[in-house]
Write a structure and sequence with these properties.
About 45% of the residues lie in helices and about 15% in strands. The protein is an alpha/beta fold.
Length: about 160
């Protein structure tokens, strides 16, 4: 999937106003920013928050990353019953070091508040244990919940936004 050509000089963050661009150009810039964030974080831990409300667009982006990006992120679909992110990730990777780990299904976790609070409390532990970027895929609703429930976590995140038509 091609969005459009992109100017390399600026980045898209949650603070940008996506309405002043056409969505294809805006999303292409966001995609470039996401690839750059993954490449620059190789061998280091980082939190990356990707805000995208459309599940179809999210899947297109994930597929495009897998097909075209030199960094092939591993996908983790969180179970609805997940209560702690740290233990869930540690069990999933079992000592491996993926180039990146994308967290999908956060919006379906039944005890999301509990998961966010525990993640907020363990922010510093992630960087001690993991040496790869951790990509959170979230909707606007979940983004607001993260800001409210896990402010320390949110402040450590690089935020990238995709918009749907």
């Amino acid at each position: 999937m091609q969005f459009m050509c992109v100017e390399q000089s600026s980045e898209n963050t949650a603070k940008d106003d996506g309405t002043k661009y056409d969505s294809a150009k805006y999303n292409e810039r966001s995609f470039s920013t996401l690839i750059r964030a993954l490449r620059l974080s190789q061998g280091y831990f980082s939190f990356v928050l990707v805000n995208c409300n459309s599940l179809a667009l999210r899947q297109q982006i994930v597929d495009r990353l897998q097909a075209n990006c030199s960094v092939k992120p591993r996908q983790l679909f969180l179970p609805k019953s997940a209560t702690t992110l740290y233990r869930t990730i540690a069990a999933e990777i079992d000592g491996e070091k993926p180039p990146a780990l994308m967290l999908l299904g956060l919006e379906s976790v039944e005890t999301i508040d509990r998961l966010l609070v525990s993640t907020n409390l363990l922010c510093s532990e992630f960087s001690k244990t993991f040496s790869f970027p951790l990509v959170f895929w979230v909707t606007d609703e979940l983004l607001r919940k993260i800001i409210r429930t896990a402010p320390d976590l949110y402040n450590r995140m690089t935020t990238i936004r995709f918009i749907s038509n």
